[in-house]
Amino acid sequence: MTIHSGWVEVLKSEVPEAFTKNPPFVPAAAFIDGMPLLMASSTLRKWEDLIRYNFCNPIRRFFMMGCKVVVLAFDDYLHVPSSKAITQANRSKNKAPFEFDERQKLETVMPADYNSRMSNRVYKRRVIDLITETVVDYLGLKRYEKLIIDYVECPVVFELDPSTMKPAYKYLVDMPSLGECDVKFTRWCRKFGDMVVHSVDGDFIPIALMEYETQYNTFMHHNQGNKEEAAQNSKKSRGKIHNIALYRLEFGAQQGPNQKTAAGGKQARPPQHPVPQVVSRKPKRSMEFVNVGMLYEEMLHIMRGWLAPAVNLTTMKKWALSVEPGNSSSSNSSSAKGGSDHGSLDPCKRELLSHTARVFSLLIALTGTDFTRGLPQLGPSKIWEFMDSQSVWNSIRSEEHTSELQSPCNLVCRLLLEK
Q1: 175: left (phi over 0), alpha (psi -120 to 50) or beta
Q2: Which of 10, 273, 305, 342 has the highest CB neighbour count under 10 A?
Q3: Is the CB of residue 73 less than 8 Å from the CB of residue 150?
């Protein structure tokens, strides 16, 4: 699923320090979304080259980064939403259909129109089958390295057998198959801890934020009223809150000829007389890491500012400390005294604060995704500017914390209706 690229621009302008060239931590595991990697460069002509370059190289990169486990995942079409098929059909409605059925076999050499053939789901599944069956042989696993393939049915773990020093495998029968890669990585993060996720799809950002928020709220609930235990856990890699980093294409790293802007942000006018262009090789794509935890904590800070604008800076710092993992119990003590250190937040606003990532995901959906194309076209910058309007947040009065306003979805709808 794709999202409006303007949201990445909003996040990068609000929290630039969360976007780095180097990994923000040493990950215990890595998750690779294999679906975008299926698209091949025009220079590749052998299946072996496709597997080595597009899959073995990223896997080996994460092992060298310090990961002990790498998960290579593909979509299981038996469990993807039915609307996904509609989306894929719309994408290829202007393309010439490519016929390929279950009885046919892959070519011995990659065809010249390989990328266009990937619009056929049967052909794509056949390519994925080839990759999952041979990637371990081409990779060359080393000792203490684990490769997990999460595709259809239950995941498969590959590692060297100490007695033979050859790859052995076993099925994780306790982990059922899931649909799209977008939701597969969350269970591996909970299983292995700190994780880096390699994917170019923009929807991994809101999903990762929601996963981090789930861990954050679970941690706070678990340590509620136990300040000493919370403080101790926070010193041990923040307890059960696992770090998440996204490894994706750098936003704004490459600009096309029509994207260059003149001074003042306006689009530059084309020259009256064409200027001869020097043909050069396409620049290498630049990648970056996105620290999801840092993004979420800054979004909490922004949300606090929206909900309690009248609170002075000293009180805001006290409030910020009161909801940190090491100080969860102070939130109860201050609320018991009347809640003065929290800006007198009513239950409705407190509920909204605990679902910061979900609110952000709903705002993303308002600007259009694969599944929300029919909605009015609102730009991310306009919505972000509107959400910063204090008159909107003041409209949620304390007497309005009814059951209809307790869900983040209804709260966001109410805020946008105020416009």
Answers
A1: beta
A2: 342
A3: yes
Strand ranges across the sheet with 69-73: 19-20, 287-291, 244-249, 195-198, 29-33, 69-73, 146-150, 156-160, 167-171
Residue for token pair 């266009």: 116
Query: pLDDT tens-digit profile of 123-148?
Result: 999 999 999 999 999 999 998 999 99
pLDDT for 224 equals 62
DSSP percent split of the chain into helix, strand, coil, nearest 5: 45, 10, 45
Write out the two tokens for 399. 């007497």
Strand partners, 157: 148, 170
Which helix (H) or strand (E) is 219 found in, with range? helix 204-222
Structural contact between residues 261 and 268, judged by C-beta atoms closer than 8 angstroms: yes
Angle at 86 between CA 82 and CA 90, to 5 degrees: 165
Res 332 pLDDT > 50: no
DSSP-derived letter for residue 160 is: E
DSSP 79: S
Give 337's contacts (C-beta < 8 A, 6+ positions apart): none
The per-residue pLDDT for 179 is: 82
How far the first Cα of the chain sits from its last, in Å, is 28
Q: Which amino acid is at 356?
A: T
DSSP label of 77: T
CA-to-CA distance for 6 and 77, rounded, in angstroms? 29
**Amino acid (1-letter code) at residue 171:** Y
Contact (Cβ atoms closer than 8 angstroms) between residue 298 and residue 18: yes
**Is pLDDT larger for residue 87 or for residue 379?**
379
3-state secondary structure of 112: coil
DSSP assignment letter at 328: T
Q: What is the mean pLDDT of residues 333-357?
A: 57
73-77, 158-162, 250-254, 288-292: least confident range:
250-254
Kindly give, in sequence order, each residue whose CB lies less than 8 Å from that of residue 102, ignoring residues fewer than 6 positions away.
122
Q: Could you tell me which of 195, 271, 207 has the C-alpha nearest to residue 23?
A: 195
CA–CA distance from 375 to each of 87, 363, 365, 370, 394 (Å)? 15, 12, 9, 11, 26
d(C-alpha 410, C-alpha 124), whole Å: 39
